[in-house]
Amino acid sequence: MKPLSERIKRISPSRTVQLTGVIENLRRQGRHIINLGIGEPDESPPQAVVSRTVHALKGGQTRYGPVSGARALREAIAHKFNGYTAQNILVTNGSKQALYTALQVVCNPGDQVIIPRPCWVSFCEQIKLAGAVPVLVDTKAHQLNFEAIESAVNTRTKMIIINSPNNPTGAVYPGDVLGKIADLAIKNDLYLISDEAYEAFVYDGWTYNSLFDFPHVRDRLVVAGSFSKIHRMTGFRIGYAAAPEEIITAMARLQSHLTGNVCTFVQQGALAAAGIDPSEFDRWRNELQKKRDMTLEILGDLPCHIPRGAFYVFPDVTGFLKDGESAEALATDILQRAGVAVAPGEAFGGEGHIRICYALAENELVRGLEKVVHVIKQRTGEKAT
Ligand code: GLU
Asked: Which of 14, 35, 323, 363 has the smallest CB count inside 10 Å?
């Protein structure tokens, strides 16, 4: 038999998504697992979203729709972007598909794409799938290192990906640094992707800044947005891209051969979500901020930059690893000994760290964190003996 493509041989599976399968298997074997590994809120979606989706399904909205998405939904999304209309929006199967499609549309083989590290698991693999080359640039205390990004730019650089609030670190990037990135893109004729899946999750009174705030860069910017996290609709698989019409038209051309439209009745659920008053979200944001604080307190001695956004903490565990051991091995040990899943930092190019998602019910979160700390302490004792 002839081998599978070189392209797929170079791609690793998503370590975050993979974790869900591992946990499901363990649960099937009867183990109680607390999942702090996957980035997913454990609350149900808003009732308005569920009712509208069910209503659309029962009402027969089950057929093909326009590739780019239902007009009303595109208009509702466009509302968030000053000067944009439905023509600037593509509804996608999660922001994951928006990112994938944008990279396919912008990159040629051999182009370089700069990503600040640590970064979300799928960026590198999606870049490789586009035939391009990921160029990882280290952050400084999880904040963008502008000088390092600037020095990584060369004639082959095509794009920079910015993700704020950041997955996995929870870092929020201030407007002045984003402004410098915008100017850098203009100066070197680069495209930009702004992954804004966590835009609403910003704490401590910090304000959220987007690359879209810089009008001079909009003609080269793709914003990827998501309904998954903000509206707790992860399994619905719905997100969007907001970009100049030319880019959206090209992305829709690709999507027409890939998936066609996003599930018709799910789009109706998203339309209900788009109509929810943002103030409804405040209660949940406050709760998450409390859970973040609680998480940092329970983790105690684990060094960790205070995350100002998203719903992750990304502590440094190097001091708790045995000689030559990886954070991945630690994560496996925690899962085996304590039945708690955490994501290994290696999945995000953040060796020596683990990612913990705190968007869980409080009792489950506290129990899970206490078990993590217990295993780490046990191991410290073992190391000493
Ligand atoms: N984005 C979430 C995470 O990082 C969900 C899984 C994924 O698509 O990566 O855990």
From this structure: 323
Half-sphere exposure for 97 (CA within 13 Å, toward CB): 24
The answer to whether residue 383 scores a pLDDT higher than 90 is: no
What stretches of the chain show up as alpha helix (H) in DSSP? 6-9, 15-28, 47-58, 71-78, 94-106, 122-129, 146-152, 175-187, 245-258, 264-274, 280-299, 327-338, 362-384
Does residue 272 contact residue 50 with C-beta atoms inside 8 Å? no
* pLDDT tens digits for range 50-100: 999 999 999 999 999 999 999 999 999 999 999 999 999 999 999 999 999
**Is 224 close to ligand 1, i.e. is its CB under 6 Å away?**
no
Q: Is the CB of 121 under 6 A from ligand 1?
A: yes
Burial of 366 (0-12, 13-18, 19+ CB in 10 A): middle
Domains 6-44+280-384 and 47-276 share a fold: no
Degrees, nearest 5: CA angle 370-371-376: 100
Q: Which CATH class is domain 47-276?
A: alpha beta
Average pLDDT rounded to a whole number, residues 199-220: 97
Which of 12, 14, 16, 232 to mutate to test ligand 1, by most ligand atoms within 8 A of the CB atom? 16
Q: How far apart, in Å, are the Cα atoms of 306 and each of 141, 282, 289, 315? A: 10, 20, 11, 9
74 CA distance to ligand 1 centroid (A)? Answer: 24
CA 42, 102, 192, 17 dihedral sign is: positive
* pTM to 2 decimal places: 0.96
Tokens encoding 150: 């600037």
The CATH architecture to which 6-44+280-384 belongs is Alpha-Beta Complex (3.90)
The pLDDT tens digits of the residues spanning 13-58 come to 998 888 888 899 999 999 999 999 999 999 999 999 999 999 999 9
| Average pLDDT score over the chain | 96
Is the CB of 17 within 6 Å of ligand 1?
Answer: yes
User: Ligand 1, atom 2: nearest CA belongs to which residue?
Assistant: 39
Compute CA 89 distance to the chain's CA centroid, rounded to the nearest angstrom.
Answer: 19
Cβ(69)–Cβ(57) below 8 Å:
no
The torsion defined by the Cα of 107, 108, 110 and 116, in degrees rounded to 10, comes to 0
- Residue 302 three-state SS: coil
User: For atom 9 of ligand 1, which residue has the closest CA?
Assistant: 16
